[in-house]
Amino acid sequence: MKYIAISILMLIACNFFCLNQIISQKIPLKWGKLSQQEIDLKSTSIDTSANAIVLCDYGEISFSPVNPIEVKRHKRIKVLKKQGIDEQANIIIPYYSADGIESVSNVEAQTMNIGSDRKIKLISVEKSKIFDVDESNNWKEIRFSFPAVDVGSILEYSYVLHSEYYLSPKEWFFQSDIPTIHSEYRANIVEGLDVNYFTVGTMLRQTYGNRTARIFVLEYLDAIKEEPYCPNPQDYVEKILFQLASYYKSKSSIYGGGIERVEIMTTWANLAKELLDNQNFNSYIKKRILAKEYLEENIVDLANLNKREKVIAIYNLVNRNFQWNGKYSLNIEKSMKELTESKIGSGIEINMFLTSLLQAADIESSPAILSTKSHGIPTKEYPIINQFNHLVCYLKLNEEDLLLDATDPFRPYELLGTENLNQNIFIVNINTPRLIEPKQTAISKNQITIFVDSITDNHLICKSKLSFSNYSAIQIRKEIQKSNNPSKVINEFLLPDNVAIITDSCIVENPNELAKPLNVRYYFQLEKDDGGTEGYLYIKPFAGIQFPRFISEKRTLPVDFVYKREINQSFVLKIPTNYELIGAPEQQNYTLSDDRANFRIFVKNENNNLTVRIVYKLNTTFFNPSDYDVVKEFYQKIEKAIAATIVLKEKQE
Fold first, then answer.
1. DSSP state, 125?
2. pLDDT category of residue 351 using cuts at 50, 70 and 90
3. Which of 374, 353, 347, 377 is nearest to 365 (CA)?
4. CA of residue 531 relative to chain centroid, distance
5. Residue 150: band (very low, low, confident or very high) from pLDDT cuts 50, 70, 90
6. What mean pLDDT is reported for the chain?
């Protein structure tokens, strides 16, 4: 990228302003200098179980009109427990090396050990042991290891990142995978540069709000850890991003010519135009004749179908005949001709082909780019392409937004993959470019009925009917086709360890008809359990059914179930004449506020025909951390309820 040119007079004034900013603020740490507090620290109240802690993480980003963006970083960590030695001793610093856009310099690192005499021993990492490694075509990593690390060691390192990518400089994360005592980030911005910043996280919003700031400090921060039902914790880390929006330059080299503003930060409309003007991105859309020929060769009666039928037919044509290679990318590597010959392609290639076929059939459609769950949530204020990593097809059907992704042959047309159910999907359309949210109307349903058919001396012989729809059907269909053994799949995925399907009893309906529920019927036998007391029979009607479990005492991350769910399971028992019922599950009714989720147990006993039924509905997929206690309690109640037992006692003759 060419550096920005402004007048010498403005540059001198700006550099003086920048220098005053730096001098007027005290740096929170100095290389090799420890406070008594850092030396004495042996544990942290943030998390007493922590193996290590960030004592200080200090960063400084500098924007200049004549130099690349520069980010200086100085980080200090203390090892608190033995497990923290291996976790913290090895450091990786990634940077984007393509076209020389980023580079890293001035890497320094040292271990500081406090001896029994309270003196500090400094052990530097030798320059020859700091490696620059090619990680991929576009990425490199600086790697090194701290020497002589032990419990109580303090590790510090620093480096400078240089970036010529003004549109998307690195984010600053105030949190990491261990607790942090102090994290600070400063922005040095010369006058004449208009730099915006965007924040993510509750603490940053509460502390700084909408006010202008150039120094950001957060203290006593929890570690960010992997939690169940949170696809990407990095979406919720306290972080900040600075971005150059515009700068001012002289209109001419002649004194008195005035200045003008030059915009750097693009708009969503401009991004759509740039993408559609890009030959690589738009290559499939331009092949209208080739797409039309392909349709005519593969779908005979397309003209006689209505719009929905056309969409389904074209989607199925692509979905069932082309194999996804597993790559998420916005780079097209294969031409349309190469794709149709190999039948294997990346997500963008398959879905661009789908878009081209729909347009060839006179169905108005557009590419839509998104970020997968694991890639992160794109920011609305930040119209930059590298926020996104996948492309799907967008169209309107009966005035409803419809997003198609033809990369999974087991997924019906109206469902996006669960990785794609993310926020801020961008419609790349020259006339109406916009961000939309995928509508999560599909409910993943499990309907299960179990009948106790007979009771032998050693077993309960049971008949089961199962029906799965939407997301719950996809994985089971995949496994059935992969193993070609439905009994094995049902046994491994749906039944507890002490249950076995009776040989050759399994019947599967609609294994390949994606628009219909997947139905399964089979017989299985359940070992009799007398609970250690002769003459008694204990039956767990909900054995094998699984609900979410939440163990952590507190949680800083939201709970994201991704899609709505419904379970309807019945257990039907005709009580044998030689037994009497002495215990059964109790009726229960648990509801999360505003009907976000509910769980019920219904119990009915008429003429010795006992029916116990569970109905569970998850109507809301996303819960904020403030909801965690009630969500945890809700599922703990369910776990306790489904452990209930039916107890029969043998009648005395």
1. P
2. very high
3. 353
4. 44
5. very high
6. 89
CA distance 634 to 598: 9
154 alpha carbon, distance to own chain's centre: 33
Containing H/E element for 641? Answer: helix 628-641
Rg of the chain taking only CA atoms, in angstroms:
31
**What would the mean pLDDT of 589-593 be, rounded to a whole number?**
94
Residues 6+ apart with CB under 8 A from 74: 29, 31, 56, 57, 58, 59, 156, 157, 158
- What is the number of residues in the chain? 653
Distance, CA of 634 to CA of 550 (rounded, Å)? 10
Tokens 């980080």, located at residue: 75
Contact at 8 Å (CB) between 406 and 313? Answer: no
Q: 11 Cβ partners below 8 Å, 6+ apart?
A: 65, 66, 190
- Residue 541 pLDDT: 92
- Across residues 311-329, what is the average pLDDT? 95
The pLDDT of residue 256 is 55
What is the predicted pLDDT for the residue at 310? Answer: 95
pLDDT digits (tens, 9 = 90+) for 513-553: 998 999 999 998 888 888 888 889 999 999 888 899 999 88
Q: pTM for the full model?
A: 0.85
Residue type present at position 348: I
For position 167, what pLDDT does the model report? 66
Average pLDDT (198-211) is 85
DSSP assigned state of 361: T
Contact (CB, 8 A) for 387 and 431: no
Can you read off the two tokens belonging to residue 195? 């730099």
Question: What is the rounded CA–CA span in Å between residue 416 and residue 393?
Answer: 10
What is the DSSP pairing of strand 52-63 with strand 180-189? Answer: parallel
- Assign residue 309 a region: left if phi > 0, alpha if psi is -120 to 50, beta otherwise? alpha
Amino acid code (one letter) for 618: L
Q: How far is Cα 330 from Cα 3, in angstroms, rounded to an integer?
A: 27
Distant-in-sequence, close-in-space partners of 132: CB < 8 Å, separation ≥ 6: 104, 140, 141, 142
Tokens 């809301």 map to which residue?
620
3-state secondary structure 178-213: CCEEEEEEEEEECCCEEEEEEEECHHHHHHHCCCCC
How many whole angstroms from its chain centre is CA 124? 38
